[in-house]
């Protein structure tokens, strides 16, 4: 999985190498699925959480936003349909929060490592946006929050 933070301050892409790509481009967050199978995405928080089926080669996007009361957004990517509703299903999270002209972001997983064995990366061509890399799809066990200025 690879996430990229392109040249604009409010720009970033999440890629899951040979898995989905999640793009947060200027003003939009998008996921492109490069897996050979469908993946499922939920953007939370939301007043009516909905799951999106992203077919192999498909794409999903939304406007960049903050959640209620300024909380951040988690784009949750599942290998299992209905993962958000089922609960306790491994999810790869790309979290972001808008803060003026900055984007705070991190990579995390919950209920296991859904893309273990794959490389998971957040990267950017913009020097002010530090990268995050999980070489085997498994996180470091501690928060690794970055900011793109």
Automatic annotation (TrEMBL):
Name of the protein described by the UniProt record: Blastomyces yeast-phase-specific protein
Signal peptide residues on this chain, from the entry's feature table: 1-25
InterPro entries named among the record's database cross-references: CetA-like (IPR006771)
Domain of life: Eukaryota
Alphabetically ordered keywords of this record: Signal
């Amino acid at each position: 999985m690879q996430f990229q933070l392109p040249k604009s301050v409010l720009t970033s892409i999440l890629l899951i190498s040979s898995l989905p790509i999640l793009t947060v481009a200027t003003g939009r967050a998008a996921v492109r699925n490069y897996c050979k199978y469908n993946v499922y995405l939920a953007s939370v928080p939301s007043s009516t959480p909905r799951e999106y089926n992203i077919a192999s080669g498909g794409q999903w996007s939304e406007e960049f936003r903050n959640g209620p009361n300024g909380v951040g957004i988690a784009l949750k990517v599942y290998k299992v349909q209905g993962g958000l509703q089922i609960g306790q299903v491994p999810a790869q999270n790309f979290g972001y929060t808008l803060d003026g002209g900055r984007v705070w972001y991190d990579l995390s997983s919950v209920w296991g490592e859904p893309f273990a064995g794959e490389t998971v990366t957040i990267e950017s061509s913009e020097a002010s946006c530090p990268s995050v890399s999980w070489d085997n799809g498994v996180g470091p066990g501690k928060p690794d929050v970055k900011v793109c200025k």
